[in-house]
Hints:
Oligomer: heterodimer
Radius of gyration of chain B: 13 Å
Helix content of chain A: under 10%
Shape of chain A: globular
Largest sheet of chain B: 7 strands, mixed
Distance between the termini of chain B: 35 Å
Structural class of chain A: mainly beta
Shape of chain B: globular
Number of strands of chain A: 11
Order of helices and strands of chain B: EEEEEEEEEEE
Structural class of chain B: mainly beta
Amino acid sequence: AQLVESGGGLVQPGGSLRLSCAASGFTFSSYDMHWVRQATGKGLEWVSGIDTAGHTYYPGSVKGRFTISRENAKNSLYLQMNSLRAEDTAVYYCAREAIAVGGTYWFDPWGQGTLVTVSS
Amino acid sequence: EIVLTQSPGTLSLSPGERATLSCRASQSVSRSSLAWYQQKPGQAPRLLIYGASSRATGIPDRFSGSGSGTDFTLTISRLEPEDFAVYYCQQYGSSPRTFGQGTKVEIK
Lengths: 120, 108
């Protein structure tokens, strides 16, 4: 199983960016997927999740600004980020839940991450 | 939201020594739904332990996890040079999924 993120870059405060995560080596449609971010020198923060039925989940820090989605036919996960702030600057990782059956599980594998920088 | 507090923030040890890392939850973690990850600079987190005590595939047996409820421990029995890294705990039993702030294991 492999995950490869793309779409990071420099964006101005208030701007938008769409991240992508290409999955391979497993049946993408069968797994819940997540985005986790990490500011430089800081810890890990879960920022969104989507289950196999398309239900989405967010923490309060990004709810209403970020939208997670998936396109099973393309084995792809997305994160649409709007109204970006300086504090959204981080490496963004996509991660798969470890087990396909119902329930909540740990994250494995993770992608290598893509850097988002919000600055004027 | 379950808050995870890891201690100590930094652990300074020598190769061959034993490392004991703590992760304390603000409320009980359901079904021992706790994982440990290792992260080295410039790399993605790597799964070490899930279900509080089960080692992930390919993880050496010097790594062990224990605990339940609100108190969990990651033990590295004899530190190898490649074990110096940052370690995070994560609870996945309830939403939002949360991580501890990390413990850095550095070479003394």
